Amino acid sequence: MIKSALAVLTSLLFIHAGLAPAAAQTVNNTAKKPVKKAVAKRAAQPVSRTVAKGSLNNREKLVRKVTVVKGKRQVSYQRVSAAPSVPVVPPVMTAGDMAGLNLTPDPLALRSNVALVIDQANSQVLFEKNSGVALPIASVTKLMTALVVVEARQNMEEVLTVTDDDVDREKHSSSRLRVGATLSRDDMLHIALMSSENRAASALGRNYPGGLPAFVAAMNAKARSLGMMDTRYVDSTGLSSQNVASARDLAKLVVAAYNYPIIRQYSTDPKYMVEPSGHALQYNSSNRLTSNKEWDIGLQKTGFINEAGHCLVMYTRIEGRPIVMVFLDSKGRLSHVGDAARMRKWLVDDQPSNLTRMKMVRADEG
After folding, report:
1. Secondary-structure percent of the chain, ordered helix, strand, coil, rounded to 5
2. Which of 45, 78, 126, 330 could form a disulfide with 310 if both were Cys (CB 3.0 to 4.6 A apart)?
3. Cα 106 to Cα 99: distance, rounded to the nearest angstrom
4. How many C-beta atoms lie closer than 10 Å to residue 253's C-beta?
5. Cα end-to-end span (Å), the chain
6. InterPro entries attached here (predicted)?
7. What is the pLDDT along the chain (366 residues), one digit of tens a residue?
């Protein structure tokens, strides 16, 4: 009996000893699981707290990044600066666009809404596109400014002073002539025609007998005398979009201005040096074609304001023919120059019948 009792006791002790490690391991595993979850929870807490507190400023955003490391999926978050939003600026609509002129097709695919090309030898219209529509003409206005100044026979050596009245407060354009700068009327006319200097053109109008109102009246009177019935001027610079004319009217102005050598020379000089108040300034032509040896330009004027687009008028010779060109409301900084080159090529290469006919006209006139 005693041996049997000892055997049973020994078995119980052995079983208890064997179960103890397993039980301990089970307990340890059970204890570890909550620890791992707690650690994972603590690792995730900073991210969730950051989002919950809304600590991101207006220029930051939270980017979620998922990676796999040793077969385990890991999620992380990173602050990055958000790209600033760029406002969408609608394209500037010119007066011609608003009138629907941009819908007019032409065989040369010109970028100008208005075009007119005339053979001055016989007044024949070679090309025409919306030429009867009055539009803003920007600094082409200065061609009439020059015509009024020259025909007024004012003293060209008289020294004029730029004043605060000459500062552009409509378009806020810049000028190299400071308030207080002095130049002769001749120099003012030169840089107004060649470089479209606005303060020079303003000073010319302001120093007319009776001031600027009388000068503008003289501009409109001259337009009427030339038969420019679609034309209206309100200033001497062209900065106002209320200065309007049709291409047909501007062709008449080009022909009238071409009669004066001083306007021909000043408008076509590629560069000119002036010394306002003793400080040397070099001005360059606003029309790059004046420096192009392939062109024979006798008179030109460019212009630009948003409402008018890019404008160009010229009196030139092509294959010996006197040609008047007018381009208004062109899109692109050099598009009016490109249209002139396109037109010149068309007249020379693609219109042999016109070339032959014009040569015959000149021969008959001779």
Report:
1. 45, 25, 30
2. 330
3. 17
4. 25
5. 159
6. Beta-lactam/transpept-like, Peptidase_S11, Peptidase_S11_N
7. 444 544 544 454 444 444 444 444 443 444 444 444 444 444 444 444 444 445 555 556 667 777 777 777 887 777 766 655 556 556 678 999 999 999 999 999 999 999 999 999 999 999 999 999 999 999 999 999 999 999 999 999 999 999 999 999 999 999 999 999 999 999 999 999 999 999 999 999 999 999 999 999 999 999 999 999 999 999 999 999 999 999 999 999 999 999 999 999 999 999 999 999 888 999 999 999 998 989 999 999 999 999 999 999 999 999 999 999 999 999 988 889 999 999 999 999 876 555 444 443 333 333
Active centre residues (catalytic): 139, 142, 196
This prediction has a pTM of 0.73
* Residues shown for the chain: 366
Residues near 204 by Cβ (< 8 Å), separated by ≥ 6? 145, 149, 160, 185, 188, 189, 192, 215, 236
CA distance 336 to 261: 25
Taking CA atoms, 57 is separated from 80, 86, 113, 261, in Å, by 11, 18, 49, 67
Q: Write the CA distances from 316 to 29, 92, 200, integer angstroms.
A: 99, 31, 26
CATH at residue 311: 3.40.710.10
Residue 212 inside a domain? The answer is yes
Q: What number of H helices and E strands is found in the chain?
A: 10, 13
Q: Is 301 annotated as a binding residue?
A: yes
CA distances from 67 to 40, 63, 75, 310 (A): 16, 13, 6, 56
Q: DSSP string covering 5-73, please?
A: HHHHHHHHHHHHHHHHHHHHHHHHHHHHHHHHHHHHHHHHHHHHHHHHHT---TTEEEEEEEEEETTEE
In a domain, 35, yes or no: no
Q: Does any domain span residue 51?
A: no
Query: Which residues span the domain enclosing 340?
Result: 112-365
Strand partners, 79: 62
Of 182, 180, 159, whose CA–CA distance to 275 is shortest?
182
